[in-house]
Structures are given as structure tokens and as C-alpha cells.
Write a structure and sequence with these properties.
It is built from 10 helices and 10 strands. It has helices at residues 42-54, 72-85, 113-127, 146-158, 172-185, 207-214, 257-272, 277-286, 301-308, 318-329; strands at 15-17, 24-26, 28-31, 59-61, 93-98, 132-137, 162-168, 191-193, 217-221, 293-296. An 8-stranded parallel β-barrel has the order 3-4-5-6-7-8-9-10, surrounded by 5 helices.
Length: 330
């Protein structure tokens, strides 16, 4: 059956402006880090992408090495673009990245101009695109001058291969310098993609201030701490969970008694709010308007539906925030 997007897909989703740019991003974006690779079920991934778009998720986040195997998530998404999403390309924000190991040798890793430009060319071929909407430097390179990495991002925009550029995993100090260089080049930084959740709050120590002062947006990855901030691990480690997966970045060692105890207490507050724990965790990341979008992952359609329902309750009382803070600092 030919896919036809829902006619009311924009009615419920909320969209935030990314910093001082003209680009609006959905409050909830979908990442293809896990469960969209060559080892995964294609039809399940296809169903998740279709449902996401029908719910108003317009931003799909990839990277050159997403899979496994590396590159296969972009190949999968490229197939979807051809078979299902071709009429809707201009309604989508598609992002990719380079910075982690992609191919052997000195030119398939880190932040050189050689690697970033070559990697994006490969990503465009895998997805069948002329350009991506956002292209990221996936991590800072300690051995390549920042001027070279940012200069590569600038030239990529000028070549028409990306509309905007971003960075990911950069410290507050590195971000401030990257912003300065890109402004001088005439290609302002659009967005920073940091890891941020109730259990990982490093961006509150300077980075958020740098972004706000310079009008740069942010999109939080792993806002559910790889699934820890869900009800999945309240009573053990399910066989189909990320912690049990040999290809994931969460291990059973992360699911400690202390973590489970805090998760249970947070879940009690979420229940009082009429939310699932994952919904409350997403709302918490979005609190105060400092984060433009939360980047969720999913292994099934129902998880996407549950996470998008965060829109039903994004507000916190002062009492709730104090109680949550007490739990997180305990």
C-alpha cells in the first residue's frame, strides 16, 4: 500500500525555534542510532518512521556510523525516502554527522576537512539526497585545529550539501570558540547536540549559558538515559531491553540498586502527574525552554506514541521540581 501521511499531522505537535535561527524543530525528534540498522527488522523500522511523521515528528537524526553495520541506518532511511517519504522531503529536517570511526586508516575518523567532506558525500549517496538539513561535527578532535573543522562545516554549507551546521559532544569552552569561528566565517552555528537527562546534567555547568548567550539551539540525546528513565527496569532487566543487547551502549552494570531505587521514586511522582516515567523525564529536560528538542530512540511504535504524549503535560510545579531535585541529588 502506498503511504499517505496523516492529514492532521501538524495539529498536536509543538515546534520550537532553534536559537535565533529561522528553523523550527519539533519538541520530539526521532533518532536512528539504534533499531534501524542492517541487523534490525526493516518493516518495524518502517512502521516507526511512518508513525513518527504522522504524529508531527519532522526531524530525523542520523550519523554516518549508525547501524550496525555502520552506514546501514542511512541506507534504510534512504530506502524509506524513496518508497514512502519522497513527496514529503521538504517537510522534513534530516540530519547526519561525522566524527567517530567510520572506515579504516587516518582519513575515516575525527575532525579533519578530508574526513568530514568525504563522509558527508558518502552519507548523501546512501540516503539518495542532494543535501542534508543539518550536518554535525560529531565530536571535537584534539589533534585537528578547530579552525579546520569549522571551516569544513562552513564550506559544506557553501557547497549546498547542508543547509545548517551543528556540533555534538563539545564542551562549553569548545562550543564558545566554535561559535566565534563560524560567525567570522559567516555560517552561524545552528544547534548543539549534547547528552542530557536527569542522570547526566553536565550541560547545566556552563554549556547552556553559552548557547543561550549566542542564540544557539540544543537538542538533547539520550534524554531517557538509554532507557533507564522508563518503567522498563523497575523490576529487573528484560530480555529485549537495551541493557541486555550485545550491540547497545547500556550494560547490566548500569542498572544498579541505587539507580533502580531512584527510578522507582521518580516513577511515583510521574504517576501523580498522570504521566509515564519516560514522559516526565522528557518534560523535565524541556523545562524552562532551554532545550529546543528531545531526541528519542525507539524499538516499537508504541514507544513513539507514548513519548509524543509528553505534549499533554510539559509543566511542573515548584514543589514537583524540588522533589525531583532531592531524588536526583540523593
Amino acid at each position: 500500500m502506498v503511504y499517505q501521511a496523516s492529514g492532521n499531522r501538524y495539529e498536536a505537535m509543538k515546534y520550537n525555534r532553534s536559537g535565533r535561527s529561522g528553523l523550527m524543530l519539533p519538541v520530539v525528534s526521532l533518532g536512528l542510532w539504534h533499531n534501524f540498522g542492517g541487523v534490525d527488522n526493516y518493516e518495524n523500522g518502517r512502521a516507526m518512521l511512518r508513525r513518527s511523521f504522522d504524529l508531527g515528528i519532522t526531524h530525523f537524526d542520523l550519523a554516518n556510523n549508525y547501524g550496525p553495520p555502520p552506514g546501514s541506518a542511512e541506507e534504510m532511511f534512504g530506502k524509506m525516502l524513496k518508497t514512502d517519504f519522497a513527496p514529503y522531503r521538504d517537510e522534513m529536517i534530516i540530519s547526519s554527522k561525522a566524527g567517530y570511526t567510520m572506515w579504516p586508516g587516518p582519513y575515516g575518523d575525527w575532525g579533519s576537512r578530508k574526513y568530514l567532506v568525504s563522509s558527508l558525500d558518502q552519507s548523501l549517496k546512501r540516503m539518495g539526497l542532494d543535501y542534508v538539513d543539518i550536518f554535525y561535527s560529531h565530536r571535537p578532535d584534539p589533534n585537528t585545529p578547530l579552525e579546520e573543522t569549522m571551516g569544513a562545516l562552513d564550506s559544506i554549507v557553501r557547497q549546498g550539501k547542508a543547509l545548517y551546521v551543528g556540533i555534538s559532544n563539545y564542551s562549553a569552552e569548545q562550543t564558545a570558540e566554535a561559535i566565534k569561528i563560524l560567525n567570522q566565517l559567516g555560517t552561524p552555528l545552528l544547534i548543539h547536540q549534547p547528552k542530557y537527562s536527569m542522570f547526566n546534567r553536565w550541560i547545566e555547568d556552563g554549556l547552556q549559558d553559552v548557547l543561550e548567550e549566542n542564540g544557539v539551539g540544543s537538542i538533547a540525546f539520550s534524554p531517557l538515559a538509554q532507557g533507564l528513565l522508563t518503567n522498563k527496569y523497575l523490576t529487573g532487566i528484560p530480555a529485549d531491553s537495551r541493557a541486555a543487547s550485545p550491540t547497545g551502549f547500556l550494560s547490566v552494570d548500569h542498572v544498579t540498586a541505587d539507580v533502580v531505587e531512584r527510578v522507582q521514586r521518580l516513577n511515583d511522582i510521574a504517576t501523580e502527574r498522570g504521566q509515564s516515567l519516560s514522559q516526565m523525564a522528557l518534560a523535565w529536560v524541556l523545562r524552562g525552554g532551554k532545550v529546543t528538542s528531545v531526541l528519542i530512540g525507539a524499538s516499537r511504535v508504541s514507544q513513539i506514541e507514548e513519548n509524543v504524549a509528553v505534549l499533554n503535560n510539559l509543566d511542573f510545579s515548584e514543589e514537583e521540581l524540588v522533589r525531583i531535585e532531592d531524588i536526583l541529588k540523593s
